[in-house]
Amino acid sequence: MNRSRRKALSTGAAALALALSTFVLAESAYAGEPEKNDKGASTEEKGGSDKTGIYAAAKVQYSGAVTKNGGSGNVSSADVNWDPPPCWYAPYLGAKDFKKKMSADIEDQLDTPGLGSGGTALGQLKRHYEDDYGWTDTPGYKDYNVDKDGEGMFWAGVENPNEPDALKRMSCSDIPFWVDNGEPAPPQYEEAITPEILAALAYQHMELPGTKVTLAPEGTTKVNLPTWAWLDKAVFDDVKATAAINVPGFNLEATTTATPKSLTLDPGTKDATTIPANGECPIVDGKIGEAYAKGKSKETPPCGITYRRSSGGETYPLKASLTWEISWTGTGQAGAVGMPDGTIEAVQDITVEEVQSINR
């Protein structure tokens, strides 16, 4: 059966799909406490298990610098075309648990009056799992693979609850399929969970420290007077977030690391000059910019802004964007793999007064 055929069967059994809403397994409402680094923040998200020890659900576990409530973190990808996975396939139930759940749901749905074509789809679904009824690239199962219980798991689609597009979120709609322990999912399931997908989920949930730039003068500056800008060195620690799935016979994890790269200043008005001219202050000797010291008022700062016009009793919104270099390592990965840079932004209100010079 080709991919569209699998989805057609799933769509035809819409009532069953509703009953099997527990396919949305991963991403509970809990995640780790935000931290500046990988120390201390973690969450355990485990499924239940029967007497055989087979877990009833495989959930993503997060640790490190991740959001507290499972929502998206404060990092925006610098690549507008990069998005976290909207859904994926992951281990769902062992054979005995799956038979108990799926067979009961199918029978309940078959008893529903007025099913029409949906009844035909449900009949095919029942034959698929009970009577070895399969298609081109989707073999059937005999008695729900019960004779292989403990040797693998049925996998099912998982929605990413942080994906705003409902169609994308529900696009992993193939019917559950079997994967032996230690084996990859069949190649037609391109969205099957991998360390790379886990790295992207860790990226999505990552919580980086805020970007409050220190300024001199602070809050109020003068026309044509260079305003010095710098970041505290504490900002420059690497930040790590980990996502993992651990169930009997299947263990994957990935750690996403963010390393500060550069600071970009947007003065909030066209009547200003940034230093450097492109507004991007790189990291030099482990720091961005230089702290102002008395007697440097006539010097040009390595990072800063010179406003050319008064804010007229109002303020200018100075936006500081800190760019972080993102990479990940994970199960089976020999070295770090690059990901799109991440950015976080902070806005500070700046008052600019019409004074040509000042003694500091």
Note down, in words, how this protein is organized.
The chain starts with a helix and ends in a 7-residue tail after the last strand. Helix 3 (95-110) runs antiparallel to helix 4 (117-130). It has 360 residues and is α+β, with helices and mostly antiparallel strands. Helices cover 17% and strands 30% of the residues. Strands 1, 2, 7, 9, 10, 12, 13, 15 and 16 form a 9-stranded mixed beta sheet that branches.
Described by the principal axes of the CA atoms, the overall outline is elongated
Number of strands: 16
| Quaternary structure state of the chains depicted | single chain
Runs in which pLDDT lies below 50 for 5 or more consecutive residues are 1-5, 10-56
Mean residue pLDDT = 82
Rg of Cα set: 27 Å
Structural class: alpha+beta
Helicity level, as a percent range?
10-25%
Count up the helices. Answer: 6
The helix/strand order is: HHEEEHHEHEHEEEEEEEEEEE
Main sheet record: 9 strands, mixed
Distance between the termini: 77 Å
Beta-strand content bin: 25-35%
